[in-house]
User: Which sequence fits this backbone?
């Protein structure tokens, strides 16, 4: 862990902030276990444990280990997940066809914006243009 309210990214590994709720810490630690898996369309939907993950499988994995989701959701279902607007610790940005999340200040996304392609679950320090996405957050986070 790192002190404060924001996660830190070092060599692709996210370090959870000490002040974050346990649910956020668990989500971060869980994603670290799949952070180099490949992008696989539909990955993470049949089971939370898969060879590779797509965008919604990745976000579903994080929310599952945060204790906020029982089964994986497709990206469009995140348009109705939780509450509207940005959360304090977790914000999910969804549209038809793609979803990503901001968790404790880091972007969790399967898209690498430098190359414009899907690479699989990765943490990023840079944000992303959220135009066209609906912001949602888990209740309480």
Assistant:
């Amino acid at each position: 862990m790192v002190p404060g309210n924001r996660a830190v990214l070092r060599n692709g590994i996210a370090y959870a902030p000490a002040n974050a709720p346990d649910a956020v810490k668990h989500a971060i630690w869980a994603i670290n276990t799949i952070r180099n898996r490949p992008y696989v369309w539909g990955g993470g939907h049949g089971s939370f444990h898969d060879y590779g993950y797509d965008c919604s499988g990745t976000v579903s994995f994080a929310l599952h280990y945060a204790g906020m989701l029982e089964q994986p959701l497709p990206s469009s279902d995140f348009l109705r997940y939780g509450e509207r607007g940005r959360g304090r610790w977790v914000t999910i940005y969804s549209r038809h066809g793609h979803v990503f999340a901001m968790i404790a200040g880091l972007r969790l996304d399967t898209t690498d914006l430098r190359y414009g392609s899907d690479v699989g679950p990765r943490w990023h320090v840079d944000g992303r243009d959220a135009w066209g996405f609906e912001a949602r957050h888990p209740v309480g986070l």
Q: What stands out?
A: Strands lie at 8-10, 13-15, 83-84, 90-95, 98-103, 106-112, 117-124, 134-137. DSSP finds two helices and eight strands in the chain.
